Amino acid sequence: MSLTLPKKVLKENPFYILLIFALFAFIAQFAGWNAKVIFTLSALGIIPLAQVIGEATEDLAAYVGPRLGGLINATLGNAAELIITIFAVARGLTTLVKASITGSILGNLLLVLGFSMLAGGIKNGTQKFDRRHVSTSAIIAVLAVISLGIPSMTKDHFASPHRIEILSIGVAAVMLVLYALFLLFSHQNSPIQPETHSEPKHSLKSDVIVLTLATITVAVLSEMLVGTVEEVVSEFGISEFFIGIILIPIIGNVAEHLVAVQQALRNSMDLSVEIAVASSIQIAMFVAPLLVFIGLLLGHPLTLVFQPLEIMALASAVITMALVSMDGESNWLEGAELLAVYLILAIAFFLM
């Protein structure tokens, strides 16, 4: 009887077997193991916990109704990655933080959407989705890239770094307001009514407890992971920038990414596109500006100044996504095209 529940849970979501790595990560930390081992175990332990937070958040949203539930989902949708970047900001690893912002947006618009269209197209042929909703999201995504690009393009025209910080704060404030308006509009005009808001799977008390414990555990693992980044960079010979732009986004969002692909395989392309595009908008319009203010509080100012290749990559991703999605249809070739753009950018980032 005692083994029945764990077996059932693992059968429903095999990702939970990775929770054992969280335990190993704590052991490795206290035993003083190699930094590469701690980094790897912490990363593997965060992956299932991100899924736990996501499921608990959706279940909690079912108790409070669609309006407040949508706000909760929008706020905690990228909780794991937000926690990781907060600890990175606290350590002054601004290159890692800004790279993870770029990597998350690229990962959702190119990697996740690409895999979804490729897998769904191979299985189901041409798939359809609501192009009006995607069009609205694409406009917000373009505005996000413009907002992130302005401090980067104008930084050489300011006499002091302090003015760049002020500009970043101003841009961050506007982005947060615009994101709130986007959430309001999306709630009023969304064509998708997720089943997750119908009936909660667990009690409210258990959801709160699970969400609290998972968040605390992710916070501890994030501190351990970020604490080993500099040693890992030194030992592996890879850049802090590459870890931020490729590895951190995958660690924090892999479970959500798989959900998008699964929905595409089930021919529910509306939801698959919604997951990928909405997550990228949340990173750009909520997480990035929020980190600017968190950086101020922690004494490590974070400006919205990105490298030229990052801005070019973001613009390319948004334009490609918009062109692929503008007809409200997708196929496996369009998915392959999105993946090709992501791989080309990944190679360029690795060689930087």
Structural class: mainly alpha
Strand content: under 5%
Task: Tell me which CATH architecture applies here.
Answer: Up-down Bundle
Largest sheet: 2 strands, antiparallel
Q: What number of structural domains do the residues give?
A: 1
> N-to-C terminal Cα separation, in Å?
54 Å
Shape: globular
DSSP helix fraction = over 70%
The ordered string of helix (H) and strand (E) elements is HHHHHEHHHHHHHEH
Averaged pLDDT: 80
Number of helices: 13
CATH third-tier fold name: A middle domain of Talin 1
CATH top level label? Mainly Alpha
Poorly predicted runs of 5 or more residues:
1-6, 192-197
- Write the CATH homologous superfamily: NCX, central ion-binding region
What does this structure look like?
The protein has one domain (13-351): A middle domain of Talin 1, CATH 1.20.1420. Helix content is 81%, strand content 1%. It contains 13 helices and 2 strands, in the order αααααβαααααααβα. A two-stranded antiparallel sheet has the order 1-2. Helix 3 (35-76) crosses helix 8 and helix 6 packs antiparallel against helix 12. The radius of gyration is 20 Å and the shape is globular.
